[in-house]
Specification:
The structure is a homodimer.
Chain A: E1 2-9, H1 13-24, H2 26-33, E2 35-43, E3 57-58, H3 61-66, E4 72-75, H4 81-92, E5 96-99, H5 102-118, E6 123-124, H6 135-142, E7 148-154, H7 157-168, H8 173-182, H9 191-194, H10 197-211, E8 221-222, H11 230-239, E9 241-252, E10 255-266, E11 278-285, E12 289-296, H12 300-315, E13 330-331, E14 339-348, H13 353-363, E15 368-373, E16 385-395, H14 397-409, E17 413-422
Parallel strand pairs in A: 1-2, 1-4, 2-3, 4-5, 5-6, 8-10, 10-13, 10-17
Antiparallel strand pairs in A: 7-9, 7-11, 9-10, 11-12, 14-16, 14-17, 15-16
Helix pairs in contact in A: 1-12, 4-5, 5-10, 7-8
């Protein structure tokens, strides 16, 4: 049987699960993958007390990257600075690398992959997107014969959990977030999840694979879910949609738009049915249409599953090398793709107000596909304004924001106008 | 760039799509997969007229299997006898093999894989299950670090199309089948699809990968969708289920049950939302839970996509070799797994009849989880009997069939009793 000697840096949740799997059940990988994975050294800044197995533990992580006995360096410490130094050192020493670090790949991917190519080693990063669901494998191996036209993904479990709670249990955003934190699904500081950074990093990795663009997280336009209200979710439901935090990537004529925003998804589409903390990715290819990959997007065991799958792949020759030398697809700094839109406005409860709003849409040459104005209930606190929902024709982000601002300036409209994308899977 | 020299036998729908992709758009595979695939020879029994490309075409397929210039023999003729001879000859000549032939793998898999191992070559068969959706890759590579506990799949596009039509458009089975035939989704003789043979072959392939069992199609118990009535589908809908043709595989203590039957699937589960001719596979692993793979399960381009993905994999070292020498899991000849059940009976419209039916369930120690008896409409043709639906507790196939027979013998019940499994994804 083949054997693979590894060094693991980082013994947090994911690192712990990797050590546990390889130490307690090595027969699974031996039997399924035909390889014996040997942990030569573990780097843990807290030292041996952090590692409940009889392994060689060092506190200086650089020792692992420089250990001449290991074939693969496994980076599970997270963050960008030290992780980058460690990975570069390991590559310099001729080692393959496996990492779960989406921030590292999304920020320094091009540099690291080029460095690895020059040293004739490879970097596995299946665990960086969608955890235990093998979406990177599907994208670069399973679909290798096809041109990807677009992808749409639910890539952050925390925000999907919150949106699901808000929809199914009518929780407020705050209550849903608190529940996610209590369940260990959200960090004490949840901002990277909630504001869309985490999903945007993952989307930029998918873009590099799907569209052969640079790894350039700074070109992704994104927004979080804080602005989504219980009222939006209720209107979505009424109109036949779920609200999901959708990472969308699209190529048109060599220009690629990547963005992540809360989005209305029609209920007859699979993505709208992805609940709780689950992730899913729909990849649309010319000729074959959509394939969808669904599963646990985070958590120690799913992420460890992806790390170990990369190790087995490396023991077996690694991955096809896409010819990055012909990158000619441009990553657009703003998303120009057009979406139908949901607008929610509080309109003055007076004759002619709705007509004026409609006229503005007509003036701007924006079609109104649907309009809902519910009756004001008698016990309503505010009967001077009435919530109105408009489903518009297709607009770019820029056009939608410009329309939103113009609407907010109208005297017939009070407060802020909400606008959200509507996913169109064609 | 790497190069791979192939010979292709079979130029029907799938073979044609493989030749088209590799001839017209070789830059896709070169760019995504880093390999130049060269078609050295094509075997077409009809000769050069069947191949609209400038390629070396021979009518004796054995010539391709014996051609010393090719690295990979691609078998796309279907059927078992000639395909088996060709594949064995190619392996004997030291060539890797790629096939889309589920019947071949499900029937002769063990023989062929052992022969290949002895000759130090590999056989790719991604295209044999779920067409363009890379489920075999997910199972043996993406999930390599995990123990599969069960899988449930919609593996036949024709039957899923028919069931979807019967549900959404209230078509009869006959009309839905005719529509599938008109659209090219069903063969003129659709029996292999409709009676479950096709799905059962695919399920036996998944079992070998998921549970390390022999490739033994004869151990799969299966039934078709002909018996599913519009009334069953309407009751399913009323009770919160879709009716799907589910291939189910389960391991318990080294014993594996594989079966394919029409099954009630709760509407809150992703599999119930898989419509039209699409395929989907849910794989449940210990520790990480369910992942689901959805996509086109048939058709020339999706199937060609899987064939080419296998070729790229072979150019890159092939697949992990699971250690088949420690097969110790037994494939059970009958499915002993217990499912809740749907029973539909036509009960005499007279006092005490339902009570007698309920007593029989109690006598047999089978719980009744739900019972529906709708009012007889005034304009009903037959008001002497009333349809009754019972959702029972968990029963094995044998127990369910025995109960069905006993019910049919009751004088209070007229005609045949329908019984279907209810999928429980726990």
């Amino acid at each position: 049987m083949k054997s693979l000697k590894i060094g693991v840096c980082g013994v947090g949740n994911v690192g712990g699960a990797v050590l546990e799997n390889l130490t307690n059940t090595p027969e699974i990988v031996a039997s399924n993958g035909g390889v014996q994975i040997e942990i030569i050294q573990v780097g843990a800044r807290k030292g041996k007390s952090a590692v409940p197995y009889d392994l060689d533990v060092v506190t200086d992580l650089m020792d692992v990257a420089e250990n001449p006995e290991i074939d693969v360096f496994v980076e599970l410490i997270g963050g960008c600075d030290l992780a980058r130094s460690l990975v570069k050192k390991a590559i310099e020493n001729g080692k393959n690398v496996v990492t779960a670090n989406k921030a590292l790949i999304a920020t320094h991917g091009d540099e690291l992959f080029e460095f690895a190519r020059n040293k004739n080693v490879q970097i596995g990063f299946e665990a960086s997107v969608a955890g235990g669901t093998p979406v990177i494998k599907a994208l670069r191996e399973g679909l290798v014969a096809n041109k990807v036209k677009w992808f749409a993904g639910i890539l952050n479990g925390t925000t999907n959990f919150i949106l699901t709670k808000m929809s199914v249990d009518q929780s407020s955003f705050e209550d849903a977030l608190k529940e996610a934190q209590d369940l260990g699904l959200a960090e004490a500081d949840p901002s990277m999840d909630v504001d869309g950074t985490d999903a945007a990093q993952k989307a930029s990795i998918l873009s590099a694979l799907a569209f052969n663009t640079p790894y350039d997280f700074s070109s992704v336009s994104y927004g979080g879910i804080e602005e989504v209200s219980a009222e939006d979710i209720s209107f979505a439901d009424q109109l036949g949609y779920s609200v999901k935090h959708i990472a969308y990537g699209f190529i048109d004529n060599g220009t690629v738009d990547i963005s992540v925003f809360p989005t209305f998804v029609p209920k007859d589409q699979l993505l709208s049915q992805v609940g709780q903390q689950m992730n899913a990715l729909e990849i649309y290819c010319e000729g074959i249409g959509s394939t969808v990959y669904y599963g646990p997007g985070a958590g120690p065991r799913p992420t460890a599953s992806a790390v170990i799958a990369d190790l087995v792949d490396l023991s077996n020759g690694g991955w096809p090398e896409s010819s990055k030398n012909n990158i000619n697809n441009v990553l657009s700094k703003e998303c120009n793709h057009k979406f139908s839109r949901y607008f929610k406005l509080d309109v003055k409860n007076e004759a002619g107000a709705i007509a004026k709003v409609s006229s503005l849409f007509a003036e701007k040459n924006v079609s109104i596909e649907a309009l809902i104005q519910n009756e004001i209930k008698n016990n309503s606190i505010d009967d001077t304004h009435v919530p109105v929902v408009i489903i518009s024709g297709e607009l770019s982000d820029k056009e939608a924001i410009s329309l939103k601002i113009t609407l907010e300036e109208m005297t017939e409209i009070s407060g802020l106008v909400q606008q959200l994308r509507i996913h169109n899977a064609l």
